[in-house]
Design goal:
With 281 residues, this protein is α/β, with parallel strands linked by helices. It folds into 2 domains: 139 residues, HUPs (Rossmann fold, 3-Layer(aba) Sandwich); 130 residues, HUPs (Rossmann fold, 3-Layer(aba) Sandwich). Helices cover 44% and strands 23% of the residues. The chain starts with a strand and ends with a strand.
Length: 281
């Protein structure tokens, strides 16, 4: 984990994500690539063209100044190497493009989480990115506070999909902070026979043991959760067990085929009060 992309719109939400990125970069000795996309006026029509050009120049110059200040502050105070990138256009597309071009290992960005506002500013942009990226995204809620993570929760529905390559970013982060990993499978109440439930539990325990054998420095355990609603059940477990980061796999299956699809992961980016790590398949 050597290159981390962090998009910013200079809001408190984005600043919260940037702080998390700085702390992870310090531990991993990684380079931060701080990205901003300027929302410029279109120059398609000639009406007020000179005024529009002047406005756009002002927006770009202001953004350049803010990025330069961020770079100077982080490098001098935190001793983390920072690259700044300025783009024009939609931030969601910019994030994906910047991550690919800069060969990022991780994207860290803000989401409104459980702040009570959905589908606005960076929150909706995070959800959009989760649905399209092939690079892991750590979504940081506005109301979360950085502490070195001691416990990760890895939510998996289909253990066959959770191969070592797919879940490796979780273990990389856990190893950085000497954290433990709780692996969970969710079953909706009343949807599984007792024999199927027990079989899933055996598979889950075997999966955890396999990952434990591959990552001997990390404590790995399995818990089978059941309840009426996935989000509520996960939230209760998070609160009871002091989980610091929750990780979920994301893929293109429909909701009927898998509860852990892109839509559910995007939905969780609005509900969680702790960082959510989206792992693309």
């Amino acid at each position: 984990m050597k290159r981390i992309v962090v998009p910013t719109d200079f809001s408190p939400n984005a600043d919260k994500a940037l702080n998390t990125a700085v702390q992870i970069a310090k531990k991993a000795k990684a380079t931060l690539i701080v990205v901003h996309a300027c929302d410029l006026l279109e120059l398609t029509f000639k009406d007020n063209l000179a005024l529009k050009k002047e406005y756009n120049r002002g927006v770009i110059m202001e953004a350049k100044g803010k990025l330069a200040l961020l770079k100077k502050s982080i490098e001098s105070v935190e001793s983390v190497k920072v690259q700044i990138k300025l783009y024009e256009g939609d931030i969601s597309n910019t994030i994906i493009h910047a991550a690919k071009v800069n060969k990022a290992d991780l994207i860290i960005m803000g989401t409104l989480g459980n702040a009570g506002i959905q589908e606005k500013i960076m929150g909706s942009k995070t959800a959009a990115a989760i649905g399209n990226t092939t690079i892991p995204i750590l979504a940081v809620p506005l109301l979360s506070n950085w502490t070195p993570p001691a416990k990760f929760l890895l939510a998996i529905n289909n253990f066959a999909e959770g191969n070592n390559l797919a879940v490796n970013p979780v273990f990389e982060l856990a190893e950085l902070f000497n954290a433990e990993i709780h692996i969970t499978k969710f079953t909706k109440e009343g949807t599984a026979k007792a024999t199927d439930y027990l079989a899933a539990e055996r598979v889950g325990n075997a999966y955890a043991k396999k990952l434990q054998s591959l990552h001997k420095n990390i404590q790995v355990s399995f818990i089978h959760l059941d309840g009426n609603k996935f989000e509520k059940t996960i939230e209760k477990y998070i609160a009871k067990n002091n989980i610091d980061i929750v990780a979920m796999l994301t893929h293109k299956r429909t909701f009927l085929k898998s509860i852990f699809n892109r839509s559910m992961t995007k939905k969780m980016s609005y509900h969680t009060s702790i960082p959510l790590l989206a792992l693309p398949l």
